[in-house]
Amino acid sequence: MERAESAGSWLQDWLTEEGLTVASTDDEQVFDVDIPGSDDRSLRIALLPEQGLLLFAMAAEVWIPRERWHALYPLLADANAEIAIGAWVLDPETSKLVYRLSLPTGGALYERECLRGVMRQVLLTVGQMEASFRAASEDARPWWAQTLDE
């Protein structure tokens, strides 16, 4: 079991033991884990001691033009209503959709399989929703016109 404390060394050790490649960041509590089979995708894992959280986050490979943001809001609401844990957010700085899942750290102990499961959940959730988000970002009609067509 791993104690989710504020020091990131246990997390770095665990990721290394799992055989995952971790890109360096400026913060010793933030880890960008390379996704096997992808040249430019990563899963960010961050210890947030001030909030008492261990954050897992991954961006979908979809860039949403500002003029299409309105079309994504109903889809995001539906997606968030369907998932039991985590949330989709639109990052206004990058115009990308990010799936975030957080675990409490206050004295928590996590089995390694639990952490693996959280990583799998993030990867699967992002993979499942990318096509829907891409279609909504490319369709020039407003979301309500699409709904009327159905």
Number of strands: 8
CATH class reads Alpha Beta
Are there runs of 5+ residues with pLDDT below 50, and where? Answer: none
The oligomeric state of the chains shown is: single chain
Arithmetic mean of pLDDT: 82
Number of helices: 4
Query: Could you name the CATH topology?
Result: Yope Regulator, Chain: A
The structural class is alpha+beta
The CATH architecture category equals 2-Layer Sandwich
Percent helix among the residues? 25-40%
Give a description of the structure.
The protein has 150 residues and is α+β, with helices and mostly antiparallel strands. It has one domain: Yope Regulator, Chain: A, CATH 3.30.1460. Helix content is 38%, strand content 29%. It is built from four helices and eight strands, in the order E-H-E-E-E-E-H-E-E-E-H-H. The protein has helices at 9-17, 69-82, 112-138, 143-149, and strands at residues 2-3, 22-23, 30-34, 42-48, 53-63, 87-91, 96-104, 109-110. The strands form two sheets. A six-stranded antiparallel sheet has the order 2-3-4-5-7-6. A hairpin with a 6-residue loop joins strand 2 and strand 3 (30-34). Helix 2 (69-82) runs antiparallel to helix 3 (112-138). It is globular and about 45 Å long. The mean pLDDT is 82.
